[in-house]
Structure formats: C-alpha cells, structure tokens
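User: Just a sanity check before I run the rest of the batch. Below are the structure tokens for the first item. I only need the designed sequence back.
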C-alpha cells in the first residue's frame, strides 16, 4: 500500500509539473503574440539594406565568407501560405590586396509548397536552399512565435525574465530566446551542407521599434557556420500586403532536377570530360588506376561520375580524386569518394580544413560517409605534385596570387599539353556578352602558366566547354583592348 501511495504521489507531482510547464509556455507565448501582433499578421514585407556574405565561397579555407553590399532588399514573409520571396541587388566588395572581377547581380529568390527556385531570369530550381528559406520564414520574430504555438513549444523561464523557447518542424530543431518584454532576440536552427554536414544558422534581432503598429527589429543579423551571413538594417515594414505568387509550372514539374546526367566527350585517348551540367570532371586513365579531377556539387553527382567510370573502365579502380579548392560547389561531392576509400589530392591548407569539416555530424541528410564513418585519406601537397605515370602523367600546380582563392590548384597533363582549371578562366558562353572589364583572374592564370613554363595548347575548364590556346589568347586580347 505504501508503494502504491508513493507511486500515486509521484504521478500526481509529474502531472502537476507538466501542467505548470504548459501554463508557463502558454503565458510566455501568449504575451509574445500580443507584443508582436502575431494574431493579426498573415504576412510581412520589409525593405532593408546592408551586407551579404556568400556562404561556401571563402577566399581561403580559414577566412570568412566574402562580403557583398546589398541595396533594395525586399523580403516577403507569407505565413498563411508558408511562402517566402526575397529580391535584392548585391555588389561584391574588393578586399585590399585581392584582385577580383566585378561581381554584381540582382537576386530573386522564392520558396513555396516545399519547392525553391530563383529567377535567372527564368525559373531555376534550387532544392538545396529549402531549409535555408524555410528558416528565414519561421525564424523571423512573428514567424517564430506562430511556429512555436503551432508546434507546442517547450518554454523555460529564466530568473532575469528571459525565456528559452524550443520546438521542431519536422527534422529541423528551432530554439529561440525572448527578452523580458517578450521580443524575439535570437533564433537558431540547422541546415544541411554537402561539405559541413549539419550546419548551424542563427538569427539575431535588435532595436525593436514600432512599424505601423507592429513591433519589428531594425537590425537583423544572420550567421551560418559561426560566420556572418547577412547584416540588414530595416527601413520599412508592411503588414498583410504581401503579393501572392504561385509555383512556376516548370518548377512544380521538376522541383529537384537530377545531377546524375553525364555527357562524356574525349579530350584525348584515355582522357575524358564528364559534363552534362553546370560543373565538369575530367577523368584520366593511368596504368595504376583512374584519376578523377574534381568532385563538384553533391554525393548524387559523384556517384553518377563513379558509376560512369566503372562502365567505361570495367575492373579499374579509382586511385585518387583531385580537388582544386574548397569552394563548396567544387567540393560538395568529395565525401562520396572518401566513403569509397579514395584518397583526396589537394593542397595542404585544404586537407586540414576538410579534416575538421568532415568530423561534424551529418544527421539531417546522412550520406555514405556519415553512415560508414570512414576516415579520409589525403595526399596533401604545397607548390607542386607529380602523379607520375608512363601512360598519362599528371602535374598539380599551385595557382599563385589569384584573387579567387589562396589555396588554389590547376592540373596539367604534359603529354596532352592540356590544362584543367576551375574558375580561373570560365569562358564566356556562346552568344553571351563578354565581361565589360578585364577579369584579373584570367590575367593571373596567364601569368601562372608563364611562370611555370607550361606548354598549354588546350584548356578543359571545369565550367563550360573545352577551349584552345587561341581561344584563351583571343579572350584576353578582347578584354585588354576593351580596357584601353
């Protein structure tokens, strides 16, 4: 009887504790809803200006994301339709001592109904950005409180009057901090990255003021992987005036285009270009095995490349994958090779970065490496590395002094007099208008070829189609003439 009584008391106390937790949560979220006008808000649209930092494009593995100045930023947060639209103009800053080409774009970004796309100018699916754009919607101050109420958030009151609020939307955890007057000051969640795995995103809000009867922060800072991502100053806010937009038919028909289509062309006997998308890989047959130059984008792309290698070279193993630099679009497929036990050949600074990055968990989108827990094998180098072979020798050379990246390599095949390079020269597509100013990356590539005394007769850019030395010289001459 005594045990039964104690058990009943414990159950009673647990029920009382849960009830008290529910009362605290209800009180905090109700007060926050009143403070931020959540019940009467179906949508918000705000104007801002500030800075944007390009995730995954750091000019060296250990440096922050590069900064762009932003103006004309208009964000539409449509809570009723779970839709978001952001449009803004951005211009990349030129850091002291770093020669970059002019980079200026108008970004036009959308998400709705679990689909994401950009206008470029036509609709282009960007499925990898869905978590990021959903976070922008549900980590906004009013969106966070709406989501917290809808997902039965847990709330913890602190002694100083602040409150911590946590809940999950599907597999994505959200945690926020409210100040003692029930304004949202910070929200954090995570997104997946093909390089970093589970990647933290944090939104920070400060200096709330009244915009047409609604409290909203003047300053918005977003951070990703611990580094600045956006710093915005809000100039104006409109309530329940968001224009409605629909998912374009071509996006609805194919919201996540496959990266697995491979188009194969021969550069020389035993040297193949694997194209068929925005990024290329080059395959080199050596007597000891197959070398893959570049593993861009994603595991899906790398698995398609490896499958095509097996089909073209049955019974041959891949002995190395060469990585030119750490920009995420050129490194996103490396993990698939690591999971398959293939050594990664890259500059020493990059190898150190990958060792750290690949120790992070990848639970949102677990890939083969996350499941296998294989440790990466590296063949790091500085300056120059020769992968000698009687059939097709390969030289790796550091690109010195490029404004694009400080740990940057190009690949030279001396027998074929062929240079494989990424981003140092991306040829202007046929019919497109050439750059208005001289691109310093092109000049730097020319200077590095001359410095090393390489007899380059053909180029295999990792963006675009193969080119001749004459094509490269003509592109440079055209730019230099325009500069004069």
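Assistant: Here's the designed sequence for the first item:
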């Amino acid at each position: 009887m005594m045990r039964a009584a104690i058990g009943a008391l414990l159950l009673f106390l647990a029920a009382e504790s849960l009830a008290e937790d529910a009362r605290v949560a209800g009180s905090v979220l109700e007060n926050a809803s009143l403070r931020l006008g959540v019940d009467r808000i179906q949508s918000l649209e705000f104007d801002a200006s500030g800075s944007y930092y390009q995730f995954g494009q750091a000019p060296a593995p250990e440096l922050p994301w590069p900064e762009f100045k932003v103006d004309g930023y208009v964000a539409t947060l449509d809570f009723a339709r779970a839709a978001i639209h952001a449009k803004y103009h951005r211009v990349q800053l030129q850091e002291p001592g770093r020669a970059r080409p002019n980079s200026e774009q108008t970004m036009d970004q959308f998400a709705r109904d679990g689909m994401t796309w950009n206008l470029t100018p036509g609709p282009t699916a960007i499925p990898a950005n869905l978590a990021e754009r959903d976070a922008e919607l549900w980590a906004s101050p009013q969106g966070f409180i709406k989501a917290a109420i809808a997902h039965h958030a847990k709330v913890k009151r602190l002694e100083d009057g602040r409150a911590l609020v946590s809940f999950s939307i599907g597999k994505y955890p959200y945690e926020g901090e409210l100040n003692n007057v029930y304004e949202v000051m910070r929200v954090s969640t995570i997104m997946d990255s093909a390089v970093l795995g589970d990647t933290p995103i944090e939104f920070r809000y400060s200096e709330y003021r009244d915009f047409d009867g609604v409290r909203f922060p003047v300053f918005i800072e977003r951070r990703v992987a611990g580094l600045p991502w956006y710093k915005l100053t809000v100039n104006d806010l409109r309530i329940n005036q968001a224009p409605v937009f629909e998912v374009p038919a071509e996006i609805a028909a194919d919201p996540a285009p496959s990266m697995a289509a491979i188009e194969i062309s021969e550069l020389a006997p035993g040297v193949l270009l694997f194209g068929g998308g925005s990024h290329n890989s080059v395959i080199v047959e050596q007597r000891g095995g197959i070398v893959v130059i570049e593993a861009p984008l994603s595991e899906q792309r790398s698995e398609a490349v490896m499958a095509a290698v097996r089909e073209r070279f049955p019974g041959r193993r891949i002995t190395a994958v060469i990585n030119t630099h750490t920009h995420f679009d050129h490194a996103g497929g490396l993990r698939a090779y690591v999971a398959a036990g293939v050594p990664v050949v890259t500059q020493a600074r990059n190898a150190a970065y990958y060792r750290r990055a690949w120790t992070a968990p990848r639970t949102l989108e677990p890939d083969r490496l996350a499941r296998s827990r294989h440790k990466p094998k590296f063949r790091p180098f500085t300056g120059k590395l020769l992968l000698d072979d009687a059939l097709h020798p390969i030289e790796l050379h550091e690109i010195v002094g490029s404004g694009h990246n400080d740990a940057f390599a190009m690949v030279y095949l001396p027998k074929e007099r062929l240079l494989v390079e990424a981003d140092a020269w991306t040829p202007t597509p046929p019919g497109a208008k050439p750059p208005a100013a001289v691109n310093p990356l092109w000049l730097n590539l020319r200077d590095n070829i001359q410095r090393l005394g390489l007899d380059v007769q053909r180029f295999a850019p990792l963006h675009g189609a193969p080119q001749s030395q004459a094509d490269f010289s003509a592109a440079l001459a055209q730019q230099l003439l325009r500069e004069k």
